[in-house]
TrEMBL record:
Residue ranges of domain Proline dehydrogenase in the record: 46-300
High-level lineage: Bacteria, Bacillati, Bacillota, Bacilli, Bacillales
Pathway as given in its UniProt record: Amino-acid degradation; L-proline degradation into L-glutamate; L-glutamate from L-proline: step 1/2
Cofactor requirement: FAD
GO biological process: L-proline catabolic process
Lineage: superkingdom: Bacteria
EC class (word): oxidoreductase
MF annotations from Gene Ontology: proline dehydrogenase activity
Enzyme Commission identifier(s): 1.5.5.2
Species: Paenibacillus solanacearum
Pfam families on file: Pro_dh
Protein name: Proline dehydrogenase 1
InterPro entries for the chain: PRODH_bac_arc, Proline_DH_dom, Proline_oxidase
Entry keyword set: FAD, Flavoprotein, Nucleotide-binding, Oxidoreductase
């Protein structure tokens, strides 16, 4: 309804507000962000990751950060990813990594951002680990897809990206990327976008989400279906069973701290499940987007504060 929509829009505006971020981050994870963020340090995150692996849940780890405004900041984030990759490798974890293009400086210096991402993907390849480039808001869609394509043409194929079902363009992108055999994560989409480019209604987003899933499962190119929507997960399992699609061709992905029981249940039933595990100091925008997805989370956090 209108109230929820306004509340959501306000939260998404707050997610992009630097002053609010600086104020919130002073409180560490005490604001309740600890439900969604695995820790402030790499070693805390690695411990959580091992715990998930014990439950047969794989991980994609995200060193939080986005929208950097200085090149030194981007270099520091790139270095943090090298340490993350080494940490995963040294402990033999079943994990890959996710990163954000604006964290590597895409909005600042696209060529330098590309170089950072290429270094990370190359280092991941040395450890046989996979990198997913998260999809941010629409000003970065084309550039993000171009980065992934360029890496593939350079022979670095251990990298994929994300398509958002709320964007009207996503079916076209999906067809092309599937032909190019790029591994994809499909999501509904977490940012505020104009109705001219994004479906405003849940019903339409869910419909395109299913079309994207169907196209990918039919193609056989590995696909992550990243959602907590039990109806879409059930629909996917039924579709795959009906079409005889191998479980090794897809996996479900969910966020750390969300629908944990469902994650464990699917893993026990033998489905591939991967948990997105974010950690680090820059947790504020990530946390506020999680609140916007489910306004009831705000009350949950206020109650437990
Ligand atoms: P919804 O219809 O929003 O929710 C379905 C049900 O799930 C809700 O009724 C509720 O019970 C539960 N739920 C959903 N969200 C929450 C929450 N925050 N807290 C508690 N319960 C919740 N978006 C991008 O734009 N780019 C990305 O790169 C990206 N990567 C992602 C990676 C993973 C692994 C996941 C799971 C999501 C990612 N997203 C990304 C976010 C995604 O776009 C959605 O905003 C988010 O997943 C919520 O939508 P949903 O599919 O769960 O469905």
């Amino acid at each position: 309804d209108l109230g929820t929509k306004l509340f959501r829009q306000t939260l998404l505006l707050l997610a992009g507000n630097r002053a609010a971020a600086a104020a919130a981050q002073r409180y560490g994870l005490k604001l309740g962000a600890g439900r969604f963020v695995a820790g402030l340090t790499l070693s805390e995150a690695l411990t959580e990751m091992a715990e998930l692996n014990r439950k047969r849940i794989a991980v994609t780890a995200d060193h939080l950060g986005e929208g950097v405004r200085e090149s030194a900041e981007a270099s520091a984030y790139a270095e943090a990813y090298m340490q993350l990759l080494d940490g995963i490798h040294d402990r033999g974890l079943d994990a890959g990594v996710s990163l954000k293009p604006t964290q590597m400086g895409l909005a600042l210096d696209p060529e330098a951002a590309y170089a950072h991402i290429r270094d990370i993907v190359r280092h991941a390849g040395e450890h046989r680990l996979f990198v997913c480039i998260d999809m941010e808001n629409s000003p970065f869609t084309d550039a993000t897809l171009a980065i992934v394509r360029k890496l593939h043409t350079e022979g670095l194929t251990g990298v994929g990206t994300v398509l958002q079902a709320y964007l009207r363009r996503s079916m076209d992108d999906c067809r092309r990327l599937t032909q190019e055999r790029v591994v994809l994560r499909l999501v509904k989409g977490a940012y505020q976008e104009a109705p001219s480019i994004a479906y405003p209604h849940k019903r339409e987003v869910d419909e395109q989400f299913k079309q994207l899933i169907r196209h990918r499962l039919d193609s056989g190119v590995f696909t992550a279906i990243a959602t907590h929507d039990a109806a879409i997960i059930d629909w996917t399992c039924a579709y795959a069973a009906r079409k005889g699609i191998q479980r090794s061709a897809y996996e479900f992905q969910m966020l750390y701290g969300v629908a944990s029981t469902l994650q464990e249940r699917l893993a026990q039933e033998g489905y591939g499940v991967r948990c997105y595990v974010p950690y680090g100091q820059s947790w504020y925008p990530y946390f506020v987007r999680r609140l916007a997805e489910r306004p009831a989370n705000v009350w949950f956090i206020l109650k437990n504060w």
